[in-house]
Structures are given as structure tokens and as C-alpha cells.
Design brief:
The chain has six helices and five strands, in the order βββαβαβαααα.
Length: about 190
């Protein structure tokens, strides 16, 4: 039977890409037929693309589907976009909810990549395109600000604890207050 759709499901981690390749055929049945692991580096990207090229049909594009968690998927998504591959980044809650509908007893990187591939085969997904540079900058600055605010909360709690001691250390209080001032200035910049 003729293949209608080819999808590579990618479970992205800091150091590796766990992938499962699947296809949908004319009777709308799906098959997950290849599995592999590659490093999450440019060398790994090239090896992955060569592997996919060897075992897929040339006349049908492959859709690369990954879960958009953290920042670890970004380099590969940018690489695929730069080289004109079809990419779809799916929100983690969509994949998580989809996995709950499957009969998976143990969740591993392999079963996640299989679920992502199956999800891509069954759904019509929007294609991802690299965001405008201003949005990327805003995302990074927002993430940095959130980290500074969280760190400041921790330091303020330390100040409160130090002040509440029976005999607070004046030098410690001074250093903690200086750290709060520094974090305040970082938040403003």
C-alpha cells in the first residue's frame, strides 16, 4: 500500500534525541517501524537526517514532530527550519493528555517518541516557523526576569530568617541586603 504520511516523533532531552519513525498508508492504518537515538548536537542532527533519508520514501516529505519543552528542542527545530524541513512543535500538555489515552504501562523516552510519532500521524498539525528575532529576545528576557524575581524571593526569605535568629550576624545581614539590592538592579535593567 502507498504511504500517505510520514512522521518522525522526537523526544528531546538535553543530550539526546530519541526518535521513532512512522507512516500512515492508504487504508489509514499506521505503523511505527524504526527507532533510534542521536546526540542533540549538530553532528547528531546530520546523522539523524541521513538515517531518515535512507529509510523513508523520497516522494513523500517527512514531518518532524517534537514536544516543545524547555529549551532543548530549540537548536534542532532551528536547524530543521533553516534546512527547509517540515517541523511541528507540540505543547507538552497535548502530548501528555494524548499519552493518557494510550495503553502505555511504562513511560520511557522510547515510548514518548512513539506516542509523539503516533500523535503526528493521527492529527493535522500546524507547521512551526522560527519566531521573529524580537519575540526570541522577549522570551529570553522574560525568562531571565522570572529567574531574578525567584532568586530575590529566596534571598528575602534568607534575610527574614537571619533577622529572626536569636543573635543575627550583622555581616551576614549586610551581605544579604547587598544581594537584594543587586537583584533589584538586575530586575530594573
Amino acid at each position: 500500500m502507498r504511504a500517505l504520511k510520514q512522521v518522525l516523533g522526537i523526544d528531546v532531552a538535553q543530550k539526546e534525541l530519541v526518535v521513532t519513525l512512522g507512516r500512515m498508508v492508504e487504508d489509514l492504518s499506521t505503523e511505527l517501524y524504526a527507532y533510534n537515538v542521536f546526540s542533540n548536537t549538530e553532528k547528531g542532527f546530520i546523522e539523524l537526517l541521513n538515517w531518515v533519508k535512507k529509510i523513508t520514501k523520497d516522494d513523500l516529505e517527512v514531518l518532524y514532530v517534537m514536544e516543545a519543552t524547555g529549551v532543548y528542542h530549540q537548536k534542532f527545530a532551528y536547524y530543521l527550519d533553516q534546512n527547509n524541513y517540515k517541523v511541528s512543535n507540540v505543547l507538552p500538555n497535548k502530548i501528555s493528555n494524548y499519552i493518557k489515552t494510550l495503553v502505555i504501562k511504562t513511560i520511557t523516552d522510547k515510548t514518548c517518541s512513539q506516542a509523539i510519532a503516533q500523535f503526528g500521524l493521527e492529527r493535522k498539525l500546524d507547521l512551526w516557523k522560527r519566531p521573529n528575532g524580537v519575540y526570541k529576545t522577549l522570551q529570553q528576557l522574560t525568562r531571565e526576569r522570572d529567574q531574578i524575581v525567584s532568586e530575590r524571593v529566596v534571598v528575602k526569605n534568607q534575610l527574614h530568617a537571619e533577622k529572626s535568629e536569636a543573635e543575627p550576624n550583622d555581616r551576614s545581614l549586610k551581605r544579604i541586603k547587598e544581594r537584594i539590592c543587586f537583584l533589584n538592579s538586575q530586575k530594573r535593567n
